[in-house]
Design goal:
single chain, alpha+beta, GMP Synthetase, Chain A, domain 3, 3-stranded mixed sheet, 3 strands
């Protein structure tokens, strides 16, 4: 996956939600990407994480790229974010 394209989509999606990217683990060898977002004015909520997550999914087809993606907020672990996203899907 092209890192600059990934970062461009990520930054745009985060900005649309009034957030900023505070951490990115971009492991292109293992195709594992972990994003952490934050917002100064108010806490990041699950809808913010979901919006950024879906923007990346829409831009990069997982059937072609075959990657794992986690979007979380400061103070919310990737595991907690995944659990919340599963709840939202139900």
């Amino acid at each position: 996956m092209n890192r600059s394209e990934f970062e461009s989509v990520l930054q745009k999606a985060a900005e649309q939600r009034g957030c900023k990217v505070v951490d990115l683990i971009f492991d292109d060898d293992e195709n594992v990407f972990e994003v952490t977002i934050d917002r100064e004015e108010s806490p990041v909520d699950i809808e913010d994480c979901e919006f950024v997550h879906r923007a990346i999914l829409d831009a990069f087809d997982r059937n072609i790229e075959d990657y794992s993606l986690t979007v979380s907020s400061v103070g919310l672990s990737p595991e907690e974010a995944d659990k919340l996203l599963e709840t939202v899907k139900e």
